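We treat protein structure as text, and this decision shapes the records that our systems exchange. This encoding replaces a full spatial description with a residue-level series of whole-number codes. Below, we set out a record of this kind in full and without editing:
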Amino acid sequence: MRLLTCAVALLAAPFSAVAIPTSNGAVAGQRTSLCERQRKAPPPCVRATPAPTQEELDARFNAFVQVFVGQSKSIYKAFEYIAADYINHNPAARNGSDSAWGILSGFWDSYSHTYIRSTIQGNMSWVNYKAGAMGEIVDRFSGIKESNTRQFEQVAVTPNRIRDKVHTATSET
């Protein structure tokens, strides 16, 4: 059981919110509902060009956190922020948004998550949350300024840097 818990924790790699969702308007929303019901991944996002400003990056990151572990939790909507060439540094998972979708889509929305805090500092970002039996998780990302969706590391201890600047607005889902 402990091995399964560790494996799920390693595979539950989060994604940085650095690309623009491709859906727009009511028609896209209708397709989203159908895709969500059929458990199909949304189309991969397109990286922002030119690179986003810090304010745009903060807004995108906050929106991602809301749909990843916040009050509006939806793995489908979270994947609207994930590029096709997503890089996962977890040796138990393959690279690419399709692989990550295959791992997370079956259980993420029904799994209990409690948002704790998140932050962006320079080229790094963190999301700190509790995930049911997996316990407290801090997911760290690199390459965020270049709109690179790369999950770098997963740790069970909150780094001091995450306490310096904390985004709020989410709670237990």
Remarks:
- The chain has one domain: 2-164.
- DSSP finds six helices and seven strands in the chain.
- The first helix runs from residue 2 to 11.
